[in-house]
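not sure who needs this but someone in the group chat was asking about EF-hand domain-containing protein from Sphingoaurantiacus capsulatus so here u go. i didnt clean anything up, its just raw.
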Amino acid sequence: MRLWLCTVAVMMAGAAQAQAYAQPVAPPAGAGPLVGRSVAPVGVLIAGFDSDGDGRTSREESRHGTLRMFGLADQNKDGKLGLLELSQWSATWLGDVSALPGRFDFDRDADDSISAAEFTAELERRFSRFDVDKDGFVTRGELLQSQPLRQQQRDERQRLPDPPQRQ
């Protein structure tokens, strides 16, 4: 009996503590909407171009990394990327075939192929967007993007598998 009472008491205390943690916490007054922080797939790529390990990517490191990426993506070595080559590159280096930048970001002349100049120009545009203080370097802090909590939750729901269908 005593063991049973101790077990019930521990369970009730645990449940009360779990309920306290489960209560939503309101942001401080005037703090605005809650946000999460994330890094875009192309931001991870740019961070990977940091060849000297100083925790930031220079414009020169980005150029070298971009040329290396184009060489890896151009599997048939014809000097341009077809849509299949871009998709395979995106899956490997950005983590998903639909990760941005995508086909329409790179292929500015809409000829269904991406030249080295188009590829380089798009990654240079992305580097410039991340370089918030315009010092020619992209730091890890500059790569972090605030994302509204609702958007973050929507993105997480989209990544979940569909529930099984009832028959």
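also Helices lie at 2-22, 41-48, 59-73, 83-94, 103-106, 116-130, 140-143, 149-159. if thats useful
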